[in-house]
């Protein structure tokens, strides 16, 4: 393929000089911003991630900032999760839906204060939905995209590396909680989270000018830990069952179909609640399932239909060979009639028909 040309629309990040210096090999575009897809190879990157520690430029996880007297009111309209339970140092994975219960995004919400939230959004233009509601209801909130760029530190040695840069306090940060920790003459929100199951942190770097100093500090402190530049890894995340909005699920899916029903517990009349009532009670007609696909598969760049008894019973939108497990791991959306573990289906891949089997659980 040809190269991607950066421009004002296809944005670089505060860490781009570091990413380039570490030898990035591929990019995708996410929230109108460059997101690395691999460095050495997806396979080698995955193996390294599971053994050592990586620094990921995930600046493209942009923050939609909701600030002002009506911030909580707006959050309660957007969030299927009970916002009254959220602590001031907490992050919530939030499946946001439209009035029909269709997924619009799956951000990580960060509560900074009672009147101040960040929504760390997946690919889309989610700020427009939030702004539309705020304008229509004349809410007293400001909705902006602040100069905040997440940098993820992921892998089994993440605690050791982060302790060297931010102090031993990082070890006490609990999953999906954060602390404000000092760096140079400022402070960053540092959360225990990230789009891998190997453990680690996300640093919400506020102020682009701090980007390269922080990047360089992590690499200088991490030599003996074999620190490398990495990025969300398509093998590790499929093995782990981490969903990608736009690929594995979209507006035609509900949170229940995505296996995110446990996050729909708000007592408020949030947007889409009524539409979700039936699935809350009776379950969804289809749901995310892990699958193993047999034979050789090429790259998955479109939705592959799942077929059985001559009809379509779902689709697969993420599939890759796992060197660790020795099989092609995949994430599918499978009809209730065929979602039981052990069910065999045909996959119409873009490279030909393959057999597949529904699995009981992901490989984490
Ligand atoms: N971190 C941050 N922002 C993000 C992502 C992230 N924005 C875009 C995208 N990723 C949003 N999607 C997800 C999907 C899964 C998770 C986080 C964001 C995730 N899920 C865990 C799981 O499924 O096991 C834990 C969920 C929980 O228990 O609360 O981490 O990665 N900042």
Account of the 3D structure:
This protein folds into 3 domains: 139 residues, Probable tRNA modification gtpase trme, domain 1 (Gyrase A, domain 2), CATH 3.30.1360; 82 residues, Alpha-Beta Plaits, CATH 3.30.70.1400; 79 residues, Elongation Factor Tu (Ef-tu), domain 3 (Beta Barrel). The protein is α+β, with helices and mostly antiparallel strands and 364 residues long. The chain is built from 8 helices and 21 strands. The strands form 5 sheets. The protein has a 6-stranded mixed sheet, with helices on both faces. A 6-stranded antiparallel beta barrel has the order 16-19-18-17-20-21. A 5-stranded antiparallel sheet has the order 5-8-9-4-10, covered by helices on one side. The chain is 20% helix and 32% strand. Strand 6 and strand 7 form a beta hairpin. It starts with 15 loop residues before the first helix and ends in a 6-residue tail after the last strand. The mean pLDDT is 98. The protein binds (6S)-5,6,7,8-tetrahydrofolate (THG). (6S)-5,6,7,8-tetrahydrofolate binds next to loops.
């Amino acid at each position: 393929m040809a190269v991607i040309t950066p421009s004002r629309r296809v944005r670089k990040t505060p860490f781009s000089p570091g990413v380039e210096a570490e030898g990035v090999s591929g990019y995708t575009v996410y929230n109108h911003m460059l997101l690395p897809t691999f460095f050495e190879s997806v396979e080698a990157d995955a193996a390294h991630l599971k053994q050592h520690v990586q620094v990921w430029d995930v600046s493209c996880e942009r923050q939609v900032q909701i600030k002002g007297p009506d911030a909580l009111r707006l959050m309660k309209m957007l969030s299927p999760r009970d916002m009254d339970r959220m602590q001031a140092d907490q992050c919530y994975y939030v499946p946001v839906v439209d009035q029909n219960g269709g997924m619009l995004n799956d951000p990580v919400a960060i509560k900074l204060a009672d009147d101040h939230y960040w929504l760390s959004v997946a690919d889309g233009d989610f700020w427009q939905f939030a702004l539309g509601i705020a304008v229509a209801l004349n809410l007293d909130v400001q909705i902006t995209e602040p100069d905040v760029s997440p940098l993820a530190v992921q892998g089994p040695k993440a605690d050791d590396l982060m302790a060297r840069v931010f102090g031993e306090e990082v070890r006490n940060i609990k999953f999906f909680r954060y602390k404000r920790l000092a760096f140079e003459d400022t402070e960053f929100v540092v959360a225990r989270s990230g789009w891998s199951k190997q453990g680690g942190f996300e640093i919400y770097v506020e102020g682009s000018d701090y980007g390269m100093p922080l990047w360089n500090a992590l690499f200088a402190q991490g030599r003996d830990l074999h620190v490398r530049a990495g990025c969300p890894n398509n093998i590790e995340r499929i093995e782990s069952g981490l969903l990608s909005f736009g690929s594995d699920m979209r507006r035609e899916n509900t949170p229940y179909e995505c296996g995110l029903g446990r996050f729909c517990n708000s007592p408020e009349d949030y947007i889409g609640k009524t539409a979700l009532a039936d699935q809350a009670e009776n379950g969804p007609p289809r749901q995310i399932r892990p699958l193993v696909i047999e034979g050789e598969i090429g790259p998955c760049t479109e939705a592959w239909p799942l077929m059985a008894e001559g009809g379509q019973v779902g689709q697969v939108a993420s599939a890759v060979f796992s060197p660790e497990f020795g099989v092609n791991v995949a994430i599918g959306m499978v009809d209730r009639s065929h979602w039981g573990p052990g069910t065999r289906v045909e996959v119409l891949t873009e490279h030909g028909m393959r057999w597949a089997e529904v699995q009981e659980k992901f490989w984490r």
